Automatic annotation (TrEMBL):
Lineage, highest ranks first: Archaea, Methanobacteriati, Methanobacteriota, Stenosarchaea group, Halobacteria
Main location: cytoplasm
Listed GO CC annotations: cytoplasm
Organism: Natronoglomus mannanivorans
EC number(s) on file: 2.7.4.25
Record bears the keyword Nucleotide-binding: yes
Name used for this protein in its record: Cytidylate kinase
Amino acid sequence: MSDSPLLVTVSGPPASGTSTLAERLADEFNLERLNGGDVFRTMAAEYEMELPEFSRLAETDDRIDRELDDRLEGEIDAHLAGRRSSETRSRGLLVESRLAGWHADGRATLAVGLVAPVEVRAARIDDRSETVAELRARERSEAERYRSYYGLEIDDPSVYDLVVDTHTLSPEGVFRTVRTAFEDVR
């Protein structure tokens, strides 16, 4: 293992399995976990807004996405520069967010992208009552925002070291695949 701080990123569209994988990796390898969704919820509380209202605001106010991304990039930069606690530095950091691979900008020990067909992902989030059409619309909106803000294509797999289709593997199979890759690079 190099002297560089350990950084793992996990990205993917909603219901692709990022949270399941991130939790398993963080537990297995004792990594500190930073979840972009948790940061977004913290921001909503700071703005004194309910999450649905804050999400709607993010659709029209680019400051929300930019602030979220700045916070995540700041945590990554601080970790890689050794400005975080010595415990975190020695443990390593796992960042889970839609743009985590881009935020790491090639500096991750391992950048993982998860994918799955929209129909499969919509079935996984039935408790959120989001239809396939609504999920596609949300993802089109996000893709346009990221293209407009940062000039990136969210579906471009080149930012990842490993892309895993979570439709073809069980959660355990996804974990084993990523664990093997992680053990090879760390």
